[in-house]
Design a protein that fits this description.
single chain, alpha+beta, three-stranded antiparallel β-sheet, 14 helices, 9 strands, elongated
């Protein structure tokens, strides 16, 4: 408290408190070469120890399965199988697994690199949005590698992301790949469904998994990343309550508020990215971790430009001069590339050709799938053309094509926000459908609003996402 830092300097990482040193394993040797120094964590399935490789004098972390689980006919084989799978991971944003075995008393253990840092759960939230975006991008890079290797994490949460410091950089590393899902842990509330057992902290479980589906779908991991980013940005989780079952109910039925409604200054493009990752229908989320990363690219460019002068460590009165000079050079290069810098050359639009914007508008209105239309919408917003979004045609397609009445009812709510009477025939048609009973009242109220005097002059379409879908 009260500590001052220079501009751009990262805050110190908090240190998690070690567990009491009364564990009988402390001082023992595991696998004839790992001496146990102290216990650094424990959960419902295993305890984690800081150890030293006795020959290499190298610190390692070892996770030891609890006694009461080492003979479990489901847990033990999965621990072994998934430990072998996790050992195939080789990425700077994934924890490295180096060894696996059994102790003389039958307990299984897993040896991994020792990370001298702290988990995201020990970092005070909210944090600055550029820092949140950078940490999230690292998580997504690690996930992309894991998914390519055929591993779905299924229990991503702040406690399973370790942050370590390398010089002036923070590095995020994903831990506990595919293991924590096996049994109920102690890090938060867990839920069970009739369609099948679902393990994981309720706030971070994707809606499809809450109803016993999509357990192997990598897009469920992307939902969890969206919740993590939401919490980093706002300090709260989108659907959290003290009752895990109420949390599940909200996650299945409610739409998340945009992060910018909690914290001022969060860019619209970041609102859009977060809310898309929290879509209840996985087909409307990002198709892959790489696609999620791509959506964050424009934000990284903004941070790079903004931090140029700060990192130069120049006196404040000169910093913006350098930013201006860099921008001027960029404009000059662009002008030359367009043919000598003609006065009539549309410099600002050179990177965003009119025909590209037109294609995006057409795709947003007529794309074959909700995901294709959403991708075009995201790109229009990122390019600063939210005023060109074809709201009514885009929402009309969603109203016709989305598979459930609950999803179509959300579209009706969005049409009400747009408040464009061009949507009236689509709402009238929706009311006539036999499978739209859940939205009839909302649709009629929306039609009554659109038919009133307040639509004699159309309102400008909303420029900020308000949760889910195209908003």
């Amino acid at each position: 408290m009260g500590e001052t830092r220079r501009a751009g300097e990262l805050p110190p990482l908090p240190q998690a408190k070690d567990a009491p040193a009364n564990d009988p394993l402390i001082g023992e040797v595991i696998g004839d070469r790992y001496r146990v120094l102290d216990r650094i964590g424990a959960g419902g399935m295993a305890a984690v120890y800081r150890c030293e490789h006795m020959l290499l004098r190298k610190p390692v972390a070892i996770k030891v399965l609890h006694h009461d689980l080492d003979k479990d006919p489901q847990v033990a084989p999965r621990f072994e199988r998934e430990a072998i799978a996790a050992a195939r991971l080789d990425h700077p944003n994934c924890v490295s697994i180096t060894d696996f075995g059994r102790m003389p008393d039958g307990r299984m253990y897993l040896v991994m690199e020792f990370l001298d840092g702290t988990t995201l759960s020990h970092i005070d939230h909210p944090i600055e949005w550029p820092r949140a975006v950078e940490l999230t991008r690292q998580i997504l890079r690690g996930l992309a590698h894991a998914h390519e290797t055929g591993i779905v994490h299924r229990d991503l949460k702040p406690g399973n992301v370790m942050v370590v410091r390398h010089g002036d950089r923070e590095v995020a590393k994903i831990i506990d790949f595919g293991i924590a899902k096996i049994v109920e842990g102690a890090a938060g509330p867990h839920v069970e469904t009739q369609a099948g057992i679902v393990f994981g902290t309720a706030d971070f479980i994707a809606p499809e998994r809450l109803v016993g589906q999509g357990n192997e779908d990598p897009r469920s991991d992307l939902y969890a990343v969206g919740v993590i980013l939401y919490e980093l940005l706002t300090g709260v989780r989108p659907f959290h309550t003290d009752d895990p079952y109420e949390t599940v109910k909200r996650a299945l039925s409610e739409t998340a508020r945009p992060p910018s409604t909690f914290v001022a200054g969060i860019p619209v493009a970041l609102d859009v990215a977060v809310l898309r990752s929290l879509e209840k229908n996985p087909d409307r989320r990002y198709a892959s971790a790489y696609e999620f990363l791509k959506a964050l690219d424009p934000l990284v460019k903004r941070v790079t430009t903004r931090s140029f002068a700060t990192r130069a460590r120049l006196p404040r009165r000169f910093r913006w001069w350098w930013v201006g000079a860099a921008a001027a050079v960029g404009v000059l290069v662009l002008a030359l590339a367009m043919g000598g810098g003609s006065k009539s050359a549309p410099l600002i639009r050179a990177a965003e050709p009119i025909d590209e914007v037109a294609r995006l508008v057409k795709r947003a209105a007529e794309g074959d799938t909700p995901g294709e239309r959403q991708s075009a919408f995201d790109r229009l917003v990122a390019l600063g053309h939210s005023d060109k979004v074809p709201w009514v045609p885009m929402l009309a397609r969603d109203l016709q094509e989305l598979p459930t009445c609950a999803e179509r009812r959300e579209v009706v709510a969005k049409m009400r926000k747009v408040n464009d009477p061009d949507a009236l025939p689509y709402l009238e048609k929706a009311i006539q459908r036999d499978d739209n009973t859940c939205l009839i009242d909302d649709a009629r109220a929306t039609m009554a609003q659109m038919s009133g005097d307040n639509v004699l002059k159309k309102k400008a379409p909303p420029r900020r996402s308000s949760g889910g879908g195209h908003f």
